[in-house]
Design a protein that fits this description.
The chain is of the alpha+beta class and about 725 residues long. It contains 17 helices and 27 strands. β1 and β2 (about 60-65) form a beta hairpin.
Length: about 725
């Protein structure tokens, strides 16, 4: 009778689970692997499975290594499992073991090497399983793999990552079953993500991507990251592409290798050590673009072993099959790398630059890892606005990749243009809402299979004179405000759906105003910083609130931002962008500003000049600059009285050698420059302002408009 799950031993459990994968009539067995690839096949039907039990501290609790292929592998109880591994594999395997302990999720069928007592290595397929309750610890199953089983397991494992380095390393480890040293060299275009085109022989350049096993190599031998000499690149690539057809090339002994290379420096760079060796070179090849006369070589693999162990035809076919499958994964990784780099470049260009003397800005952006879904649509931006104000914007566009990047770039630039044109945060979000809907309706958007509906955005505008912030939010997580005394709160504006949410009752975007005295810290972020599968989003925001409370007014803000992300960011490979913006608000000193509220009367312009004149003298403006500023004030106030309604607000701000004059009223007409008749008495005021200022414009307020102008002091 079969044992029940609760009574079965780990060995029986694993054996039963793998029963379907062992060929009927007995399993092909891998015998003892000797240096440089010598192996002996055992009798059909011999056991190829072994099990090692581990305690929670990753020390061995017991093992079943009686099968012949595992001869020489010692697993004494109480010893560390890491002692069975090559030194270079210890960190990675230990991380996998701890992850299975933590998550209770099995890690299945990874190609791995084990050390025998005599220093030789055995290639196995290793699976890590959590021990069955009530036991604690892990069960590690090991399969000594026959070549075809190894080929299947390798091809399955290699395609699990879109990282070029990991793919090359997995291929090199798999090739080690056919030899003692395996190397993978890739063309520069693969590393940079460039389009792979037909290569001229004199332009082929290779870089070593992977080398196994990990050991101390002779001086001058090429290791990962090294560029192959141009002669070696041309020689290797030319050898495997004869008559425009890729071939596996075998050089049977060291004398022939040295004769082919012809240069002692090339021999030292390419041949591992001084012992007798043979080598098989197998190209990584993909089909060229449509119409290309021949395939494209992405790189060359090398498998080295002793010359008495000749490479047989069956072995070469297996090697070519494995490398051919890997070549497709390498090309996919190259394309993904190119897209990842393009989107990341766009993301970086959108990051805030330096702040001003009224606000200090720091940001951190950590993109998703290259082998995830691709860089997401998170973005933050900050930029100066007319009237000494500063805009702070954060958004999260739905999706990943180039479609999300294109939408992100369009929304970011549109938000900046609209805010700079004088629209308020709520009005800007209304336009962005329309843009997202329009993008989704266009044929181009539908053809691309991408929709930005549901994207979120939060806009804050800081006024350093009034020490206030206007904020409007479209479905984004609420910002945090840290007060100068260290207390913190979430800034929750009236909730509103995300951009383009058509299936909800549409409401205007609420604009919320709050005080931000000098020393306050505003925190904008995206969900990648606070999301945790094991906790609610409110818990994540609470953790962020606790962390930003520790940011002191005297801390370097950029270092503080990195510290916040380090404390909150996930330790696992990132599956969503992590974005944070910190804005420390200093405000404008009272002695550098002046604001007057005046009635709209015929003598208001004269009253404004009388108030501004002594102030401009105290600010030590030159006589010519002072006269120009008074004329600008007079013209703007006159226009406000003539064409506006209600009281007039005059504000002067000094920032270094720049003077900003702003006049607000309750009218909603937009002043425009126009060509008037030479004899016309009206319409000349704006021409005067245009001539005397470096720039001027209009911004819209809740009560009307404000016309601003900047002059050099």
């Amino acid at each position: 009778m079969d044992p029940t799950p609760s009574s079965a031993s780990p060995f029986d459990t694993v054996s039963g689970a793998l029963g379907d994968y062992i060929p009927k009539g007995g399993a092909t067995v891998v015998g003892r692997q000797h240096p440089l690839g010598a192996d002996s096949e055992a009798e059909d039907g011999e056991q190829i499975l072994a099990v090692v039990g581990l305690r929670p501290d990753l020390r061995i609790s017991g093992s079943n290594l009686d099968a012949a292929p595992f001869a020489g592998v010692s697993a004494a109880p109480g010893t560390a499992f890491a002692d069975l591994l090559p030194p270079g594999d210890v960190p990675t395997v230990t991380q996998r073991l701890r992850r299975v302990l933590r998550t209770r999720e099995a890690h299945v069928a990874r190609v791995q090497r084990l050390l025998r007592d005599d220093g030789t290595e055995l290639v196995v397929s290793m699976s890590i399983l959590p021990a069955a309750p009530p036991q604690e610890g892990l069960t590690v199953s090991l399969i000594a793999m026959a070549k075809r089983l190894h080929l299947y397991a390798s091809a399955t494992a290699i395609g699990t990552s879109l990282d070029i380095g990991e793919t090359a390393q997995s291929l090199a480890q798999s090739l080690l079953a056919w030899g003692d040293v395996a190397a993978v060299n890739l063309d520069y275009a693969v590393w940079t993500g460039e389009a792979v085109t037909e290569q001229a022989q004199d332009r082929i350049r290779l870089r070593r991507a992977a080398l196994v096993p990990d050991r101390a190599w002779p001086e001058g031998y090429l290791t990962p990251g090294d560029n192959l000499p141009r002669e070696a690149s041309r020689l290797l690539a030319g050898a495997v592409m004869r008559d425009d057809v890729p071939h596996a090339v075998v050089i049977p002994d060291r004398a022939a290798i040295e004769r082919v290379l012809g240069d002692p420096l090339l021999v030292r760079a390419l041949v591992p050590g001084n012992r007798p060796v043979s080598v098989a070179c197998i190209p990584l090849v993909v089909e060229g673009p449509e119409g290309a006369p021949r395939p494209i070589v992405l790189g060359v693999t090398e498998v080295w072993r002793r010359p008495e162990c000749l490479f047989g035809d069956a072995e070469l076919l297996d090697l070519q099959e494995l490398v051919a499958k890997t070549a497709r994964h390498v090309d996919l990784a190259r394309q993904h790398q190119r897209e990842h780099a393009q989107v990341l470049a766009l993301q970086r260009r959108l990051l805030p630059r330096a702040g001003s003397d009224t606000i200090e800005v720091a940001s951190v952006y950590e993109p998703t890892t290259p082998d995830s879904a691709g860089v997401g649509g998170d973005w933050v931006n900050s930029f100066p606005l007319p009237g000494d104000r500063t805009a702070l914007v954060v958004g999260d566009v739905v999706g990943h990749g180039l479609g999300a990047a294109a939408a992100m770039g369009q929304l970011s630039m549109e938000a900046r243009a609209l805010l700079s044109a004088g629209l308020g945060p709520g009005e800007v979000l209304e336009r962005l809402d329309e843009t997202v809907t329009l993008l989704d309706d266009t044929d181009a958007g539908l053809a691309a299979g991408y929709s930005a509906l549901g994207s979120t955005c939060c806009i804050a505008v800081y006024d350093p004179v009034d020490h206030k912030v206007l904020i409007s939010n479209a479905g984004h997580l609420p910002p945090l405000l840290v007060h100068p005394d260290g207390s913190a709160e979430t800034v929750a504006a009236q909730p509103h759906p995300a951009l383009g949410a058509e299936f909800v009752v549409r409401e205007p975007f609420e604009v919320h105003e709050f005080a931000a005295p000098p020393g306050s810290l505003l925190v904008l972020y995206t969900d990648g910083l606070v999301e945790d599968p094991a906790a609610s989003i409110d818990d994540g925001i609470g953790r962020l609130t606790d962390v930003v409370r520790d940011v002191h007014p005297w801390d370097d803000l950029q270092q503080a931002a990195r510290r916040v992300v380090a404390r909150l960011g996930p330790q696992e490979p990132l599956r969503d962008d992590v974005t944070l913006l910190l804005a420390r608000m200093a405000g404008r000193r009272g002695r550098d500003t002046a604001t007057w509220r005046l009635p709209a009367r015929d003598d208001t312009a004269a009253r404004a000049r009388a108030l501004a004149s002594p102030l401009l003298r105290r600010w030590h403006l030159g006589e010519q600059a002072r006269d120009g500023a008074l004329l600008v004030v007079s013209e703007l106030v006159t226009n406000a009285v003539r064409f506006g309604t209600g009281p007039v607000t005059v504000r002067l701000v000094r920032a270094g050698n720049r003077l900003t004059c702003e006049v607000g009223d309750t009218g909603n007409g937009r002043p425009r420059l126009r060509r008037g008749d030479p004899l016309d008495d009206g319409g000349r005021g704006l021409h005067v302002v245009h001539k005397l200022t470096t720039r001027w414009g209009v911004r819209w307020t809740d009560t009307g408009k404000a016309v601003w102008a900047e002059l050099e002091g």
